[in-house]
Amino acid sequence: ETSPSRLLQAVTTAITNLLRNKLDASQCREYLRQIAAAIEAGLSIEDAGSGACAVFIISALQMVMEDRKRDGTLPALLAECCTLLNHSFTHLARITEERPAIKWNVMQSELAVIATGLMGKGKSEKSSAILDCLSVAAAIQSLHHLLDYSVGLIPNLFSPSSLSTYGVVLAASLEVYENEQWTSEIRLAALDLLKKVTVEEGAESLSCMIPGAITALHAQLTASTATANVKVQQKSLEIYARALTTVFTLRGDKRKEKGDGSDLPVPPHSTLIVKRDDQWWKILEERVILSITQISAALAGHRSSDVRLKLLTTVVAIWGLIDNGQSILDPTTKVDRSSQYRLQAVVIDLLLVMSEDHDERIASNCSTFLSTIPSSSLIDSCHEKLAEFASSLPVIVRNGDGDKQLFGKVSSVVRTLDNEIVFLAETEDELMGRFTRSLIDCIRIDATRLAIVRGEDEQEIEKEGGGGIKAFLLSLPLQFGMRLDWIDGVTRELARAGDHMLRLLLHLLPPSSSSSDDPSLLLVTTLLIMQQSSTPLSDEDLSALVEWATDRLQRVQVTTMEREETVEDASQLGPSSTLSALSLLSTIGVATSKMGKGREKNRSLITVLSLLLEWSACPLVAVSEAACLAIREIAKSSSLSVSALLIRNGNHIANRVALASRRYYSNRCCPLILSSLLDRLESDDLFIHLSLIVEDLIGALDRHNVDWCHLILRVLYAYIRAINRWYPDQAPPSKKTFIEEEETEKGDEEEKLVDEPPKPTPQKSVTMAELILKRTKHLHSSLHLPVCILSLSIASECLYHVRRWDDVLLPMVHQNWASLLPRFDDANYECRIAALRVLSRMAEVSKDFIHRKIKDDLWPSIESFLRAETTAKGGYEQSRKLKYTVALMDRLPVIFDLCALSSQLGSSLIDICTALSLNSTQSNTVIEAAKRAIAVLGHIDSRVDID
């Protein structure tokens, strides 16, 4: 309730005491806080007297801050002084719209003192460490108030006589902006302060400081990280363009450049004024162009579309400044426009990169800006960039600098050239050849990571409509951090040349006499063929490519023995062979699928399918998957499923295989083709034809070495699985009494009752399964593990197929038992697991027929093994022995139930499982399996008791 006059008197006394008495920093801080509290309460009375009080406080604080600046304690009191100053300015703005007259020298002094305090220019280095967010925020706000109230004063901050003060304020704003320890709100406030000092009235002063301002803004924009504040970056770009725009307004002012003696600065500051001659402008332009180039490179791929859009408008605005600045020079003088052309190249670079942006605003602006550039200049620039890419692209990629943005720029250059690309490809221009070669040299498949593939099941891919061969190729790992989908974007634009581009690539293929392949060239060719072209590709060119690739692939082909050894050691198929096979298979599949229906395609289709079927049996997953996807690509182009495609051409393939398999020592690929064919057929259209070939192979089974035997077994396994798919339930006709009609001598028919009808004849598939069982049972004891496991797997499938024919099933179970029994004592536990699967199948199909065989012949051996495990320590969780033990726990209760052995052997197995479950040293997997077995056996016993 104090009147303004009394409040003014009290404040005057307080500030006089503050200046007279040398208080330490803490005492002075408390004193200022008390004054601020009193003023805040007293200045709520809104009248002229309170306004005069506020003006006095503003003026008096100038003396306080000057005094504290001299003794070095100002940084410690900066927050309190600025808070008091801000209260006063806020009150003045509240009580009147007219700005009271405050002497400029007071405001100038306060601007300089506060700005100096922000920069930490005290007597010691400790002064800068005292500043905190509260002090800096209050100081920035005070500078804003002082600038607002100095507008209209003569002189003011933008006067040449105040150049040093202007420089201090600008430097303080930049220092706060550059310091990342301050909050984004404080840094934005500093940028707002920069915006106020980069106005046209201060162009003269700003021109003296522009190099430092550009350097500070450039450093922050190019050093921005993924966590940088988006608003700060947007504001920085705005201030960057605003500062340059302000300075470039002086370029057309001849009076100020030549100097007519008007408005000259006072002598003490004359040394700070720069001479803005042609050399000065040239140096500034060079610096701006270099800065813009680096800022564009740093922010063109920024995560925020708003920042990218701001970058685009900023660069285009600065380009307009330099372009217009050179246009307003004296037309009679010779102008060096090299800087303009360099900046135009930078702008075109940025527009080409950002024209691929997913943000519609950016893409639209890029199209608009590109349309303003003369067509001749744009085409010439793109030609230069194409030549630059032709020489530098592989080097950039190998240095680790290749990224999506770079290849997006390449795509934009090719797209901008439009019909020029078609002309270059059609004429096989040397530049186009070098560019294509450089693009190919960027691709190097990383063989060390090639084993990391999708590994998806082929049927699942087809069911879900997977990405096909293109998705497979794009997933291949490349060296140097490259990705094939970046190249795919370039080939999409090159496909504009269509047939001409394909011929250019075909000319780059190694000659037939060369023994080396170029997987990178083949990948680029494959991607090009897969693109949608405005002109269809020639069947002659595609046929020539397929013929060349099939011939090459047959050279890459490894021997059967090496292929089988790769099951255990995949490294024997070297990386170079693997990469060649991958690229050749993909090229063959895609090129064949793109060929039109005609003689060229029909002539090569059988050879292609045979080759792809052979390679689909390769033990290397990546190569096998490439072959499978190539087959599916051909089937898709014919609007057929893989099975339908193979059935349509199956007779020709089977005939070729049948003829070649008679010379099996020189044609070991035939079983691979046949097994792959059988795995993919979903109907029995080729059953009779394929059965004849299988019979021939069975006849050759005993005239073998171990490798050839393994290949034949692969065919037999694929064959028996196929007939199980085709004929899932081959049962004999139902038994019934029927009437046989006989003709008597009189010509009458006599009905005769037949008690025992003749036995029905098994179907062809059943007799084939029986034949296979008979001819493979001796191979259960093979010392070659793959042969042993395959023969056991074949036995399991065959027994399932003949399960409804007791006259076939039971003799086969009996005959296979003798060779199966020793496998449960085999040293290799994988062999034991395979034998256990056959035993489970026998129990499933023959029931108690093997009751005595298990009880008397097999159980003693298994019981001995399991009892030894009850006291043994558990092995590794992934050991084969552990897997065999768990398999016994899971399968024996079911086998006992099927063979009626639960009442006789169930108690013994329960004792063993109980002991295993109590063995704390055993693996947890075995303990859990033992508990499951006890539960199953208990359920079976309770069911038997009920029965």
Helix-strand layout with pairing:
Elements: H1 4-20, H2 25-42, H3 48-70, H4 74-95, H5 104-118, H6 126-130, H7 133-150, H8 163-178, H9 184-197, H10 203-222, H11 230-248, H12 254-258, H13 278-299, H14 305-327, H15 338-354, H16 360-372, H17 375-398, H18 404-417, H19 419-426, H20 430-441, H21 458-464, H22 468-474, H23 484-494, H24 499-507, H25 519-530, H26 539-556, H27 560-565, H28 575-594, H29 599-615, H30 621-637, H31 642-661, H32 670-680, H33 687-699, H34 706-726, E1 739-743, E2 749-753, H35 764-776, H36 785-801, H37 806-820, H38 829-846, H39 851-869, H40 880-898, H41 902-918, H42 924-946
Antiparallel strand pairs: 1-2
Helix pairs in contact: 1-2, 1-3, 2-4, 3-4, 3-5, 4-7, 5-7, 5-8, 7-9, 8-9, 8-10, 9-11, 10-11, 10-13, 11-14, 13-14, 13-15, 14-15, 14-16, 15-16, 15-18, 17-18, 17-20, 18-23, 20-25, 24-25, 25-28, 26-28, 26-29, 28-29, 28-30, 29-30, 29-31, 29-32, 31-32, 31-33, 32-34, 33-34, 34-36, 35-36, ...
